[in-house]
Every structure is written in structure tokens, then in C-alpha cells.
């Protein structure tokens, strides 16, 4: 059984260490993720504030935002030294603030750069390096775009774990909140991905709020990531 069979999504301003401690009291095995932390914040900011956590929170992954392979490798090393179980690259956040830093969902357009980033991180650490991304960006609606993105990253970076938020990211014209609600969910794209890349660990994310729906997904993919519902309910 995959250890990421059930996980709680990284959510800015929500999945802080207090929430994670609380979540761990409810579930011993659910995989938890930090809020996204930028490489700049870790390299130039208060490292202690961004990285500290209570050991009760493990298994725990640190999610990084960045697009410079050297910086990401350096931050991945910090994650390993601090005792995180995984380090994850954000290729899904649609916020304009994030785009101006050239990371998040706009990286969907640059699979080679994503591969370089993940490869640098993997070379730096022995813990798993994973990626969380969307199925496409803006008006690109086809499945082929998603398949080619995953194929490139898997081949060039030997990345084995893909967490897929099953909607497009609209980079212009929608707020981050609208980006979580307006682009339609396309679960079949993620199921097809698992069929085509059976050797990869594929985790699906987006819109899950009922246990019966989660159980239905687990027959088709390796894991389900729950976002807002895990916080509200």
C-alpha cells in the first residue's frame, strides 16, 4: 500500500504547524504537507520560523516554491536536515505574486526546467522528491499536454511521485480562490495518466469532500489528497 494513500494538501495560511498538530491527533497515518515556502524565504529569511515542527507531525512533507535548481537543492537539503520525510515542488499555485517570481503553475509551460529543478533536488537528498501540478494552464484543455509534461519530467528527472490537481490553472483573470473553483475538474485525465504510467505513483487532488468519493478513487490511482474539506470539516 502506498504511504501517500491519503494526504492533506499544502494550503497557504492554513496548513501551519498548529493545524498539522491538530490533524495528527485525528489521524496517525495521513501524509501531511506544509504551506508552500519559497526558496528565497528559506535562504534569506528566518529559517527557524519556516522549518520548525513538532515531531508528532511526521510523516510530513515540506512544499517548496521556486524555479532555480541550485536554490531548490539547497532548500531540499535543509528539509532533510530538519527531519522532513519528503520535499515537494509546487507547480500548481496560480497566484500572480507567485508567477512574478516565475514559479508555481506557470512552470507547467516549462517541463524541462521542472525536470532540472527536481533532478537538482534529488541529487542533493536521499528523501523522496515529489511534484504537485495542474492538468494544464490557461486555454490548453487537451490530455496530451498533461501526458507530455509528466513523461518529460519522469524521464529527465526520474521523478516517481506526481500529485495532480485535476483542473487547469488560469494564470490571467482568475484569483487563486476562483482557480480552486471555476476551472472544471477532470478526474478521467488523472485516471488515464495512471493507466499510461503504471510505474509512477499518481495521487489525485481537487474537490473531494465525501469519503465514498475518495474510496472510489483509490481503485484507480495510488492516493487521494484532500484540501479544503480537511480544514473545514
Note down, in words, how this protein is organized:
This protein has helices at residues 17-26, 39-44, 47-51, 69-82, 96-100, 111-124, 143-157, 176-179, 187-196, 211-217, 228-232; strands at 6-8, 31-38, 60-65, 86-91, 129-137, 161-169, 201-205, 223-226. It has 233 residues and is of the alpha/beta class. An 8-stranded parallel barrel has the order 1-2-3-4-5-6-7-8, surrounded by 5 helices.
Helix count equals 11
Parts with pLDDT < 50 across at least 5 consecutive residues: none
Number of strands: 8
The strand line-up of the biggest sheet is 1-2-3-4-5-6-7-8
Helix coverage percent: 40-55%
Distance between the termini: 26 Å
Largest sheet: 8 strands, parallel, barrel
CA gyration radius, whole angstroms: 16 Å
What is the string of SSEs from the N terminus onward?
Answer: EHEHHEHEHHEHEHHEHEH
List the topology elements:
Elements: E1 6-8, H1 17-26, E2 31-38, H2 39-44, H3 47-51, E3 60-65, H4 69-82, E4 86-91, H5 96-100, H6 111-124, E5 129-137, H7 143-157, E6 161-169, H8 176-179, H9 187-196, E7 201-205, H10 211-217, E8 223-226, H11 228-232
Parallel strand pairs: 1-2, 1-8, 2-3, 3-4, 4-5, 5-6, 6-7, 7-8
Give a concise summary.
The chain has helices at 17-26, 39-44, 47-51, 69-82, 96-100, 111-124, 143-157, 176-179, 187-196, 211-217, 228-232, and strands spanning 6-8, 31-38, 60-65, 86-91, 129-137, 161-169, 201-205, 223-226. It is of the alpha/beta class.
Supply the key terms.
alpha/beta; 8-stranded parallel barrel; single chain; 8 strands; globular; 11 helices; 233 residues
Amino acid at each position: 500500500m502506498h504511504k501517500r494513500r491519503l494526504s492533506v494538501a499544502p494550503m497557504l495560511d492554513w496548513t501551519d504547524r498548529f493545524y498539522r498538530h491538530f490533524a495528527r491527533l485525528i489521524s496517525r497515518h495521513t501524509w501531511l504537507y506544509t504551506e508552500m515556502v519559497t526558496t528565497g524565504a528559506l535562504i534569506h529569511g528566518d529559517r527557524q520560523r519556516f522549518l520548525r515542527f513538532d515531531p508528532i507531525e511526521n510523516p510530513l512533507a515540506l512544499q517548496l516554491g521556486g524555479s532555480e535548481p541550485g536554490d531548490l537543492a539547497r532548500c531540499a537539503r535543509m528539509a532533510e536536515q530538519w527531519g522532513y520525510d519528503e520535499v515537494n515542488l509546487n507547480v500548481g499555485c496560480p497566484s500572480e505574486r507567485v508567477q512574478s517570481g516565475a514559479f508555481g503553475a506557470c512552470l507547467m509551460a516549462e517541463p524541462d526546467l521542472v525536470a532540472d529543478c527536481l533532478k537538482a533536488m534529488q541529487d542533493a537528498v536521499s528523501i523522496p522528491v515529489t511534484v504537485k501540478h495542474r492538468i494544464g494552464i490557461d486555454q490548453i484543455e487537451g490530455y496530451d499536454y498533461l501526458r507530455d509534461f509528466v513523461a518529460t519530467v519522469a524521464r529527465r528527472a526520474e521523478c516517481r511521485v506526481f500529485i495532480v490537481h485535476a483542473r487547469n490553472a488560469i494564470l490571467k483573470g482568475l484569483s487563486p480562490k476562483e482557480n480552486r473553483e471555476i476551472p472544471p475538474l477532470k478526474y478521467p485525465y488523472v485516471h488515464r495518466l495512471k493507466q499510461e504510467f503504471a510505474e509512477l505513483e499518481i495521487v489525485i487532488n481537487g474537490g473531494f469532500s465525501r469519503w465514498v468519493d475518495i474510496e472510489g478513487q483509490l481503485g484507480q490511482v495510488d492516493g487521494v489528497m484532500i484540501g479544503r474539506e480537511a480544514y473545514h470539516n
